[in-house]
């Protein structure tokens, strides 16, 4: 006998409009520490169409900060994450793409069959140059865009509800030689990644409800400081 899951979202319906959510497609680029949490949270929330893009495989150092399981070792991150997402929601339409995101990728991605107004893009990559590439490729094709940046216990989340007309985000794409010299994932924890993902999903649900977004959130967990613009 099949399970009756029609009330799975009952307690969130006043916060996450089910009708608009059901029409949305989500693209998560990068399923490392933050991106994996974004994918799992979107799935639990009830997204119906989800595309994951990442070329990387699961390594031992990914287990603690990214929440992968030992049996995932050596697997494509997108396929391991897709499997976990389907455990949360067997009805999810999910597309795992195990390759680098390229400027030409939007032409081929399944989710770009969705209307621009209902496509949400979550940029969870670990370099400024890749962020710039993603931004140029998707800004005119998405209705919502969010980018998470994480270094140890500092989280920054940028969000836009009109990416094609957004002049602010491009100003945050500084030259790579001005970036912190270490990889942003050199020091990371699953709790910081989960908070970053939660901030991204919070902005996403604001967008679903037609509420103003915080275009730039900065949280320093160690100092207990939060700023928003």
Give a quick rundown of the structure.
This protein has 229 residues and is α/β, with parallel strands linked by helices. The protein is built from six helices and eight strands, in the order αβαβααββαββαββ.
Explain how this protein is built:
This protein is of the alpha/beta class and 229 residues long. It has one domain (16-228): NAD(P)-binding Rossmann-like Domain (Rossmann fold, 3-Layer(aba) Sandwich), CATH 3.40.50. Helix content is 29%, strand content 19%. It is built from 6 helices and 8 strands. It has helices spanning 18-23, 33-45, 63-66, 77-88, 128-138, 190-209, and strands spanning 25-29, 49-53, 93-97, 119-123, 144-151, 154-160, 216-220, 225-228. An 8-stranded mixed sheet has the order 3-2-1-4-5-6-7-8, sandwiched between helices. Helix 2 (33-45) packs parallel to helix 4 (77-88) and helix 2 (33-45) crosses helix 6. It is globular. The model has no long low-confidence stretch (mean pLDDT 90).
Name a few traits of the molecule.
19% strand; single chain; 8 strands; Rossmann fold; globular; eight-stranded mixed β-sheet; 229 residues
Average pLDDT rating: 90
Number of distinct helices: 6
CATH class: Alpha Beta
Provide the structure class: alpha/beta
CATH topology: Rossmann fold
Q: Can you tell me the number of structural domains?
A: 1
| Radius of gyration using CA atoms only | 17 Å
Termini separation (Å)? 50 Å
CATH superfamily placement: NAD(P)-binding Rossmann-like Domain
Q: Level of helix content?
A: 25-40%
Number of strands: 8
Instruction: Name the CATH architecture.
Output: 3-Layer(aba) Sandwich
The main sheet orders its strands as: 3-2-1-4-5-6-7-8
What is the N-to-C order of secondary-structure elements (H for helix, E for strand)?
HEHEHHEEHEEHEE
User: Stretches where pLDDT falls below 50 for ≥5 residues?
Assistant: none
Shape: globular
Largest sheet: 8 strands, mixed
Strand proportion, as a percent range, falls in 15-25%
């Amino acid at each position: 006998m099949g399970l009756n899951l029609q009330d799975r979202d009952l307690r969130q319906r006043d916060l996450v409009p089910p009708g608009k959510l059901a029409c949305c497609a989500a693209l998560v680029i990068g399923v490392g520490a933050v991106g994996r949490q974004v994918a799992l949270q979107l799935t639990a929330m009830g997204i119906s169409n989800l595309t994951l893009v990442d070329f990387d495989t699961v390594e031992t150092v990914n287990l603690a900060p990214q929440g992968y399981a030992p049996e995932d070792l050596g697997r494509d991150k997108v396929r391991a994450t897709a499997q976990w997402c389907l455990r949360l929601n067997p009805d999810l339409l999910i597309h795992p793409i195990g390759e680098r995101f390229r400027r030409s990728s939007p032409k081929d991605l399944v989710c770009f069959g969705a209307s621009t107004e209902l496509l949400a893009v979550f940029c969870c990559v670990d370099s400024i140059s890749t962020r710039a590439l993603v931004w140029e490729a998707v800004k005119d094709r998405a209705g919502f865009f969010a980018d998470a940046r994480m270094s140890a216990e500092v989280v920054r989340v940028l969000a836009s509800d009109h990416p094609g007309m957004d002049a602010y985000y491009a100003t945050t794409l500084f030259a790579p030689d001005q970036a912190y010299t270490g990889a942003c994932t050199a020091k990371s924890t699953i709790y910081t990644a989960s908070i970053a993902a939660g901030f991204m999903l919070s902005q996403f649900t604001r967008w679903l409800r037609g509420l103003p977004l915080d275009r730039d959130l900065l949280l320093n967990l160690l100092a207990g400081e939060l700023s928003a613009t």
